[in-house]
Design goal:
Layout lengths: L16 E8 L2 H8 L11 H16 L4 E4 L1 H6 L1 H9 L3 E4 L12 H19 L5 E2 L12 H8 L4 E2 L20 E4 L5 E4 L4 E4 L2 E4 L3 H4 L4 H9 L6 E4 L19 H31 L1 E3 L1 H9 L7
Parallel strand pairs: 1-2, 1-10, 1-11, 2-3, 4-5, 5-7
Antiparallel strand pairs: 6-7, 8-9
Helix pairs in contact: 5-6
The structure holds zinc ion.
Zinc ion binds next to loops.
Length: 305
């Protein structure tokens, strides 16, 4: 695949640029589905509260972000998606059902992406330019998905994450934005989440889930060393002002309760740290959307390639 590394760009504000994103999904809905709750599709008050906190924080630090919106979440909470878009944030695509790409066939993947895109177009009046897979699941066994995205008209992807926690991951030569030859002459920009390369090790410093276990100074050092345009990603639940509770059904078994408790504990640790780490990052970097980065890199105004 052809590659063209991004130039390291100094922003107007003096700091280097970093790309800010949110994977916009309802944590409670997804965890309840994973735990087998029968009524997992039911909506709750948490995502509204989380989105409000997130929008306030973004306003406080003066940043716009790319929201990779899950189709099924958007249909459950259309007013929230409109509220996010009306504040000038970019709406991009996180697929529809949050099924890992490597568990789908190319036809299923194309259908999932189209369903999400149709929902986003209906709510915002615009086709999303970018895509991010659930749990960065465009792995070696699913690299065909990049060709599907290009064929479906996406301009950029942010699904390839060189994190040791992702089994069978695609390992790029470097972690900076680059152009992929997606087959049949199609081009797709890959805008990866930040990974700090220390010797042979990989430290994923771009995700708020990792900020819970890394000191802030180390996150800042890693981002400074991760190359041009390091990518950041958060989830709404990481900004929840209240502790996360998995809200299991009354008849949940012991194993369901243990798994629910473990997920709560992990996620609450990230939740406590995310706002302060993001503020510290905003003090060092000019935060821009992925769409703005694509526009700069492709030399256009954000239009399709
Ligand atoms: Zn997700």
């Amino acid at each position: 695949m052809g590659r063209s590394p991004a130039r390291r760009s100094r922003s107007r504000g003096g700091g280097t640029q970093a790309l800010l994103s949110v994977d916009f999904e309802d944590w409670h809905q997804l965890v309840r589905r994973r735990l087998g709750a029968r009524d997992w599709g039911r909506t709750g008050p948490a995502l509204e509260r989380q989105t409000q906190a997130l929008l306030e924080l973004l306003e406080e630090i003066g940043a716009r972000a790319t929201f990779f919106v899950l189709g099924m979440t958007a249909r459950s909470y259309p007013a929230l998606v409109s509220a996010v878009a009306s504040r000038g944030h970019e709406i991009a695509c996180h697929g529809d059902q949050h099924v890992p790409v490597h568990r789908q066939t190319p036809a299923q993947f194309a259908a999932d992406v189209r369903a999400a895109r149709a929902t986003i177009e209906e709510l915002t009046g615009r086709a999303p330019l970018g895509y991010r897979a659930p749990a960065f699941s465009i792995t070696r066994s699913a690299d065909w998905a990049l060709g599907v995205l290009a064929a479906e008209g996406f301009a950029y992807d942010s699904s390839v994450h060189d994190s040791p926690r992702i089994r069978g991951r695609l390992a790029p030569e470097h972690g900076e934005p680059h152009v992929l030859d997606a087959g049949d002459g199609a081009r797709l920009w890959e805008l990866p989440p930040a990974v700090w390369r220390v010797g042979g090790a990989r430290v994923p410093v771009g995700g708020a889930s990792y900020w819970s276990v890394l000191p802030t100074a180390l996150v800042l050092r890693g981002l400074a060393d991760a190359g041009a345009m390091p990518g950041l990603y958060l989830h709404p639940h990481e900004l929840d002002p209240q502790p996360l509770r998995a809200a299991l059904p009354a008849d949940a078994g012991r194993w369901q309760r243990v798994r629910g408790w473990l997920r709560e504990a992990q996620r609450n640790a990230a939740r406590r740290r995310a706002p302060q780490v993001l503020r510290a990052i905003a003090g060092r970097h000019r935060l821009i959307t992925y769409g703005e980065a694509y526009a700069q890199l492709s030399g256009g105004s954000g239009a399709r390639p």
